[in-house]
Amino acid sequence: MKINKIKYTVAAALLSALIAGCTTSPTGRSQFILVSGAEMATLGAQSFSELKQNEKISTDKKTNAYVQCVTDAILEVTPPQPDFDKWEVVVFDSDQVNAFALPGGKIGVYTGLLKVARTQDQLASVIGHEIGHVMANHGSERVSSQVAANSALQITSIALGASGTADADLIMAGLGLGVNVGVLLPFSRTHESESDLIGVRLMNEAGFDPNHSVALWRNMAKASDGAPPEILSTHPSHDTRISDLQAAINELPPPTRKAPDCGRPNLFG
Asked: Measured in whole angstroms, how far is the alpha carbon of residue 46 from the centre of its chain?
């Protein structure tokens, strides 16, 4: 009877959390969020600090100015975020074809990406996409889903007389960070597609050419050397991504401003 009572209490608490945690993303999608944006901003800032200690940061002035210029143009049209005041962008000197944005407004761009994102508009597509993850609280959503799943498992653990959870690992996994801080795990296909949509809206509003987002993913397809089938991947396939982006671009209004000339350095080819 005692075990059954505990199981009922945990289940009731989980149900209450499920009801309280429903919210809506910038695209109108229903979300389940239990972890506050302020908590996630703190975790993102801590993780970013560790990344800066462990990764090589680019000291090339032209590269940093270029990335900052593109990012600033996107941020000018990005709505204020409720859980932090200032965005930060760091360029990491690495061949990784990657970029990310963590909760708390921490943006990282790897120099390897700049060899694939060949124009400032293509880079704007990536920056807008990563900012979209933060705007849509995808980190909070991932953590919340895992917290809910973990709570359900705890009910079974209690019934079996087991105990103990790995909360630190749970939070790190939800942030999109692996065991080694800096190894970024992909978001779900839903999150990736939603960030594509938010990103293309942001770059268009900032005056960048949204059609370059399609060109970017064609470049990515060439550089991927055979990505896994979409059903086996947490990212949409390149073909799906391109098709969805093209459909979104066709619905965009004309831009009301012109993007700055950020002067892409020639060293990226």
From this structure: 16
Q: How far apart are CA 91 and CA 69, in angstroms?
A: 12
Answer whether 130's CB lies under 8 Å from 19's CB: no
pTM more than 0.85: no
Per-residue model confidence as pLDDT tens digits over 108-144: 999 999 999 999 999 999 999 999 999 988 777 777 7
Amino acid type, 190: T
Non-local (6+) Cβ contacts of 254 within 8 A are: none
Give the pLDDT confidence of 36-78 residue by residue, as tens digits.
888 889 989 999 999 999 999 999 999 999 999 999 999 999 9
Residues taking part in catalysis: 130
Residue 143 CB burial class (10 angstroms; 0-12, 13-18, ≥19): buried
CA-based nearest residue to 33, from 45, 18, 44, 43 = 18
> 55 near 182, Cβ under 8 Å?
yes
Q: Where are the domains of the chain?
A: 1-251
State the residue for tokens 């600033």: 72
Expressed in angstroms, the distance from the first to the final Cα of the chain is 70
